[in-house]
């Protein structure tokens, strides 16, 4: 019930006056519809069904009205009025259905936008605890369910308004008969209430199942190469089959439930109509015109009762989706990074440029739910405008240190100080805006090379793009592509080789003209010739930007100004390449000798 209230509040806060206007329209349409039913009696009277065109009606209001207009009442006039009423009603209904869609779409777009923005503005540590597929699931499946549920909610409201007004009209015609029908309706509703509860349970199940389903298929498709090359198709197909079966079962269960309640409604309707006519004629002695009106009203109302019941079941089964979406929005809000100050990235960059050094003081860091610390007692200095290399075995803590230095995650204890200013919640984003980062597994969007480049520097000219491509030794191969810069790179850049992808991503990073460039194994997929070209280009940047490089191949960091050696989350050594190579008992010498042996 609380979740339902929350849903209504949210719907009202997004759509506001439109929702109220929509409600007013529903009332007008229902009144006009009621009036057009009422008009049937004079029409039938005019054609002589009740023996007279005026005066003899035992209906409230109508007899007086009929007396005063009896002179002008004939079949064309009555039919004309009837047509005007129906046409007006059709016009209003058209307007209202457009308004319904506008309300529903505005609500859904707002939810979608709020959720997406919330996700993107969350801290990196939040993403470390979540599955990517959970976000996709929320933004696709769950929002689609809420969208459908909102459509049902709006039509349910209109059914309710219509029902209330028609019941009012029926009361006016015959209070006793109406009370009888309403009482029967209420009894049936109470009897069927448990089905609404069942619908909620099925809705919870749908949410859970589709979350697992979305997570599974995302994993499978991300690992499709592993699946194909290791012949894992059968086990994955079996999982999929079982999952699809459970989803099918869940949907069939819901339809079974829904159709059961509809069946009960229809069966009861048959009994009720018989009882209704019997009571009207034999017990209440109701006149024919009243009886016809009451039958018309209730024959139109009964399907509405059914649709109210099934609408309620649907909405109740949608509420878990809304509940989890709001839960995610709340989590995102709690994990939100401080909002950037007004102005574009250019302004931000000017505010935070590295001129002297980055200092890491007594840094400690543990990943959420991890038993061991990933970094312990880190004290290092990274001088501006030089090249710093970070080396160490796999799992030594290199990437974690980089994430901390970039302000992606926050230290458990200790401080990072940039040009004398400690990084904190407020300036962490400003700091990141002057850094370009090239990861181990570079990511390209499924669009052209040009658009991939422009993503990081929207104002870059064609000349600047070619300059950046030449820097990353990719200009030659891009020129040879069928559409040059306008070649589409495929999903995640799949149409390019690993090395080509790395070079384009490096060009993209350079194009932003960063103050700090971080390369995390960013040239690992390159052949020696291209790697050498890039190394030379990077060395030329010495003095104009600060370069931080994580490297496994130690030969690539020979010209670094400083090497930081890590092991088990600690800094073991720090100094110049030659100096560390000369310390024969040091961790760096050990790494060097392993590599020499392997080579
Ligand atoms: N998201 C995470 N959750 C929990 N533990 C993590 C997470 N990421 C890394 N770790 C752990 O933190 C430690 C340091 O990992 P990190 O990725 O920084 O090492 P690395 O030196 O960059 O390794 P590699 O060279 O293999 O990339 C490792 O023990 C790793 O298992």
From TrEMBL:
Predominant localisation class: membrane
Stretches that traverse the bilayer: 20-51, 71-92, 152-173, 179-196, 263-281
UniProt keywords, alphabetically: ATP-binding, Membrane, Nucleotide-binding, Transmembrane, Transmembrane helix
Transmembrane among keywords: yes
Ranges of residues in domain ABC transporter: 358-593
PROSITE patterns per UniProt: ABC_TM1F, ABC_TRANSPORTER_1, ABC_TRANSPORTER_2
Subcellular location: Cell membrane
Domain ABC transmembrane type-1: 20-317
Stretches of the chain forming a coiled coil according to its record: none
Membrane topology of the entry: Multi-pass membrane protein
Domain of life: Bacteria
GO MF annotation: an example: ATP binding
Protein name, per record: ABC transporter ATP-binding protein
Organism expressing this protein natively: Paenibacillus lacisoli
Lineage: Bacteria, Bacillati, Bacillota, Bacilli, Bacillales
């Amino acid at each position: 019930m609380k979740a339902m209230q929350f849903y209504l509040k949210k719907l009202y806060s997004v759509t506001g006056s439109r929702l109220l206007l929509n409600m007013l329209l529903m009332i007008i349409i229902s009144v006009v519809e009621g009036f057009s039913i009422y008009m049937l009696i004079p029409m039938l009277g005019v054609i002589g069904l009740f023996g007279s065109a005026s005066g003899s009606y035992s209906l409230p209001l109508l007899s007086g009205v009929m007396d005063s207009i009896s002179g002008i009442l004939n079949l064309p006039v009555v039919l004309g009025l009837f047509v005007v009423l129906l046409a007006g009603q059709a016009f209003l209904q058209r307007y209202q259905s457009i308004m319904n869609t506008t309300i529903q779409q505005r609500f859904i777009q707002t939810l979608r936008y709020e959720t997406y923005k919330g996700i993107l503005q969350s801290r990196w540590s939040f993403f470390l605890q979540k599955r990517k597929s959970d976000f996709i699931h929320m933004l696709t499946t769950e929002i689609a369910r809420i969208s459908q549920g909102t459509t049902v909610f709006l039509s349910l409201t209109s059914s309710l308004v219509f029902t209330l007004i028609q019941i009012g009209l029926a009361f006016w015609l015959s209070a006793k008969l109406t009370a009888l029908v309403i009482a029967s309706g209420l009894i049936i509703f109470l009897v069927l209430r448990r089905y609404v509860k069942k619908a909620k349970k099925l809705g919870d199940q749908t949410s859970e199942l589709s979350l697992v389903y979305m997570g599974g298929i995302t994993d499978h498709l991300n690992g499709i190469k592993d699946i194909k090359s290791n012949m894992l198709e059968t086990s994955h197909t079996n999982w999929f089959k079982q999952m699809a079966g459970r989803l099918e079962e869940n949907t069939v269960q819901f339809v079974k439930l829904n159709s059961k309640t509809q069946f009960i409604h229809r069966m009861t309707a048959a009994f009720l109509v018989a009882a209704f006519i019997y009571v009207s004629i034999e017990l209440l002695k109701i006149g024919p015109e009243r009886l016809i009106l009451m039958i018309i009203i209730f024959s139109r109302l009964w399907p509405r009762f059914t649709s109210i019941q099934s609408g309620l079941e649907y909405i109740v089964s949608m509420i878990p989706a809304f509940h989890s979406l709001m839960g995610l929005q709340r989590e995102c809000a709690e994990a939100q990074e401080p909002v950037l100050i007004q102005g574009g990235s250019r302004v931000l960059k000017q505010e935070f440029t590295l001129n002297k050094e980055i200092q890491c003081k007594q840094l400690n860091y543990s990943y959420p739910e991890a038993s061991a610390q990933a970094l312990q007692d880190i004290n290092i200095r990274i001088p501006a405008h030089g090249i710093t290399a970070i080396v160490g075995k796999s799992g030594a803590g290199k990437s974690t240190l980089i994430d901390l230095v970039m302000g992606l995650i926050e230290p458990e204890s200790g401080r990072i100080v940039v040009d004398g200013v400690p990084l904190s919640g407020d300036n962490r984003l400003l700091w990141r805006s002057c850094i370009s980062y090239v990861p181990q597994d570079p990511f390209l969007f499924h669009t052209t090379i040009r658009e991939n480049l422009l993503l990081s520097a929207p104002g870059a000219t064609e000349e600047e793009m070619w300059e950046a491509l030449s820097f990353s030794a990719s200009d030659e191969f891009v020129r040879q592509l069928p559409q040059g810069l306008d070649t589409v790179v495929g999903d995640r850049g799949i149409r390019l080789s690993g090395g080509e992808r790395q070079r384009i991503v490096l060009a993209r990073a350079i194009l932003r003209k960063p103050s700090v460039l971080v390369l995390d194994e960013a040239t690992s997929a390159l052949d020696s010739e291209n790697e050498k070209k890039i190394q030379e280009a990077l060395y030329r940047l010495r003095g104009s930007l600060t370069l931080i490089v994580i490297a496994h191949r130690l030969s690539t960091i020979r010209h670094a100004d400083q090497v930081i050696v890590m092991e088990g989350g600690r800094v073991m050594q720090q100094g110049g390449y030659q100096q560390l190579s000369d310390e024969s008992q040091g961790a760096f010498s050990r790494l060097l000798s392993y590599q020499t042996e392997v080579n």
